[in-house]
Amino acid sequence: MGVRYLSTQRDERHIKKTGEKLEYSTAFELRVSLTQGNSGRTPIVYKLIKVLLLFSLPLVAIGWLSSHSSSHSAEQTQSKVATYKSEDYVGSEACKDCHEDQFKAFSHTSHAQLVKISSWDKKVTGCESCHGPGKAHSEEGDPKKIISFKNKSSKEISETCLGCHAGKEEHNNFRRGEHWRNDIGCTDCHSTHSQPSGRQLAASNVFVSRANAQKPGFSDLKLLKNSEPQLCLSCHGETKHQFNLPFHHKVLEGAMKCSDCHNPHGGFELKQTRLATGADAACIKCHADKQGPFVYEHAPVKTDGCIACHTPHGSSNPRLLITSRVAQLCLTCHSTAHGVGADEPAGPQHNLNAQYANCTNCHIKIHGSRTSPVFFR
Description:
The chain is mainly alpha-helical.
């Protein structure tokens, strides 16, 4: 009869006392071989049972506690849902008697218009969709009888919003985004009660688009508290000066906005850039001719992306390049001075005088070419 159990130490005293034959495997597994007629058989069995009980009891206790807590939380959730009956809801009109200013502001928002949409028929809309049933609160006036967000954390507030706004690509990754990790919630950027105020004036008489068809500091899009660039720059001040450089993307002018390239609600890409087919999706959405595929690819474009040569927000150099001279940028890779890098330019045609120093005068298809291996055309 043989008995096996695991151990990482050899018990010399046990060997001397029982006289059993012990064998060790390379995996530190201790095999106890009991011989027929050994008088120490019963004590060994009892010891094994004792060891098994000592190891199993904590596991049973942990399993019981976890199941008890989960069932308790489930009971709390079920009891909470059970208390929310249809007769406990009184409608948003009942809120108007005491909260007139908030009701007027809310009535102009897109949330207030849900009652007119057929897909929201027989669903809770209006104030009670976020604050819960208001019958007890309206009858007694007790602030504890209604859900208030004054003392809730940003994550708790965001969870309430995601109850309706989750399920679409725009918001699905909010919990893995930088805003969520840094305790920036929905109401830090959006206002559920606010209404458009002031007169809408276009920021440009030459080119009016959805991005600039409103005054700076004013927004009626997506219930934002402020115009999108001003709202983003209130936290991301490190990028504001880049949009004031001589060459920059026209964000402050209103020709484009931050969310054209970034998804503020999270994503899988670096800096929460928009996800699309191919690399540098945020760039190729506008610069589609640089995407390819090409017969002759320029390696840095595929490996490092656009930021290998360009700064996305703004630069002191034309075409948002990271260096002032094109040749200087090219030679950061195309130089064998240190025994590494791409092929070094050679031959009489590579005259580095000022009038010839711009490599793209000849290598015009520097992002990739379908005909020339050296990107001539």
